[in-house]
Amino acid sequence: MGRRPRGRDVQGILLLDKPLGVTSNKALQRVKQIFFARKAGHTGSLDPEAGGLLPICFGGATKVSAYLLDADKRYWVRVRLGETTTTADAEGELLRTRPVEGVTEALLGDALARFRGEIQQIPPMYSALKHQGERLYKLAREGVEVERKPRTITIYELKLLAWESPHLELEVRCSKGTYIRTLAEDIGEVLGCGAHVAALRRTGLGPYREADMVTMERIEAAAREGNEALDALLLGVDSALGHWPQVRLTADSAFYLGQGQAVLVPNAPTGGPVRIYDPNGRFLGIGEILDDGRVAPRRMI
């Protein structure tokens, strides 16, 4: 007989408000331990010194995590003008100091306008990207710098929330693959004074918002009440795909789809991915509408 898997079969998504000073992986392991969960993963790492939204996917939710990785993200960021650092944030060593007296709100407005829309961005050396199998941040710590190719990213929103020299606060909504530290650094260069990130918080990811986040303290308090209180903190697996059209199947269609067959659904949406539910409203997984109108299974939960 095989060994029984250790832990509870937890299903759902927890919107963790990741504390500062903790790696995303450490936060994941702590939450997994509290829930005594068999299977869990996180989507979209945050730097240790960045806080905010870190979705933790339990059980079947790990199958939809890729769709969250591709989703747009929102950040609140405090930028310190006049100082550049090795890591483009407050953790790095100071590289250069420049005056900021000439920076006005009008100049700031012009600078920010240059970064809205589709732009090219060179990933920082202090990042988790790999070069010949090595993480860039490891190479950077060894004093090695390698050439990085520019990437096309999109800044959908870039709002100035507050400006009191030498600090400015921004709200950013951006595409996946955007480095806020690089954005801050590039804004500083356009202003001619340099800059780094003083504080960073992720406030949104895909369909999720800051108001839905759960702190580590709240999770620990729920754990003292028992598994029912813990599981009440979870969102459904399908919450990650809430913006997709849904298809409800008959019992027969659900059976055949579960066998890997495409099924005909009257009045199905046209083209693209869909959320699939059984007659009782239970989420079954991800399907795709074929050219002939049938629904094919793509990722069943």
Strand and helix map with partners:
Layout: E1 12-18, H1 24-35, E2 40-42, E3 50-58, H2 65-69, E4 73-81, E5 83-85, E6 94-97, H3 105-113, E7 117-121, E8 130-131, E9 134-135, H4 136-141, E10 151-164, E11 167-174, H5 180-191, E12 195-205, E13 208-209, H6 216-225, H7 227-231, E14 246-248, H8 251-258, E15 263-264, E16 273-277, E17 283-289, E18 294-300
Parallel strand pairs: 3-12, 14-16
Antiparallel strand pairs: 1-3, 2-3, 4-11, 4-12, 5-6, 7-10, 8-9, 10-11, 12-13, 15-18, 16-17, 17-18
Overview of the molecule:
The chain has 301 residues and is α+β, with helices and mostly antiparallel strands. It has 3 domains: 12-70 and 208-238, 2-Layer Sandwich (Pseudouridine synthase), CATH 3.30.2350; 73-205, Pseudouridine synthase (2-Layer Sandwich), CATH 3.30.2350.10; 244-300, PUA domain (Archaeosine Trna-guanine Transglycosylase, Chain: A, domain 4, Roll). 22% of the residues lie in helices and 34% in strands. The protein contains 8 helices and 18 strands. Strands 1, 2, 3, 4, 7, 10, 11, 12 and 13 form a 9-stranded mixed beta sheet that branches. A hairpin with a 4-residue loop joins strand 17 (283-289) and strand 18 (294-300).
What's the level 1 CATH class of the largest domain? Alpha Beta
* Helix and strand element order: EHEEHEEEHEEEHEEHEEHHEHEEEE
The shape is globular
- CATH homologous superfamily of the largest domain? Pseudouridine synthase
Alpha-carbon Rg, integer: 22 Å
The assigned structural class equals alpha+beta
Number of domains: 3
Quote the average pLDDT: 91
